[in-house]
User: What shape does this take?
Amino acid sequence: HWTMEEFVGTEISRIRALVGEKGQVIGAVSGGVDSTVAAKLMHEAIGDRFHAVLVDNGLLRHNEAETVHQTLTSHLGINLTVIDASERFLTELKGVSDPEKKRKIIGKNFIEVFQETAHKIAKEAAGTPNAGDIEWLLQGTLYPDVIESIAFRGPSQTIKTHHNVGGLPAAMHLKLIEPLRELFKDEVRILGTKLGIPEELVWRHPFPGPGLAIRTLGEVTRSQVEITRQADRIFIEEIIAAGLYRKISQAYAALLPIQVVGVMGDKRVHEQPICLRAVETTDFMTANWFDFDRPFLDKVSSRITNEVSGVCSVFQNITSKPPGTIEME
Ligand code: XMP
Assistant: This one.
């Protein structure tokens, strides 16, 4: 039996002993609770010798890179570098519609961009006194991830290639540091609150690594992603306004790669539909679709069709998992 205060103290001492007086650590952050808590813990332990990197792959949600930057630097004091690599990712994704191919391309480019950034940071750090080489890679691995990676080892077991940054440690020849590897999600949230991480961030819905690319069904282009992004922003805004955010485990808007007919004024138009998805779950292995009331859906539907150009219909995915999955690709 241990308390969270003891955990913080013990973990900080362990990190300091492991990394030493001059050791440098690098880690990717996403703005999600796990990577933010891990980064904050690292910052408490070794200050600016921890280097956080946010890769903006052009597939993030509305204002996400800016918000994460603001919270991590101004609010939490973390030494963060934001890399805008959106052009590179969108170019690499050109002409690709297959979801698994999208995941592979995004995973591969993420590793490359992260590595390039790590080299740059290492060079800069080498010029400052009292700085050693970057030898450590921070990962926000939780206990369930540890279990899953053991249970899922072996051929053809993974339904989707979720752990799209799994190749990172091997590719970089860095030693892994995983301060959350004994914790469950609810414990990470308690720890995050203790470390002064804002409530909104502590309770943020999970967001997949491939981001809006797997919510923009079919081919991913800058303009298609922008439609997904605007519809998603409206849906999430309304969920927050209705006080439903914490009741729902994950929610998003997806853009479907089909055309449906609609009327705009006195003209027939052929435009794409948006599909709303919201689920309740405790473990993300199974999930129930979330039932909104009619006034809520009415509001979301009319806002999306009025405010997002290129969209004339709104659908809702009412499939639980199984047989559905939480993402639609
Ligand atoms: P599914 O769609 O398999 O999703 O029911 C379960 C959870 O995993 C997330 N997910 C992903 N996360 N990369 C990620 O980092 C991925 O490729 C990916 N695909 C699904 C999904 O958002 C949900 O939380």
About this structure: Residues 99-126 form the longest helix (28 residues).
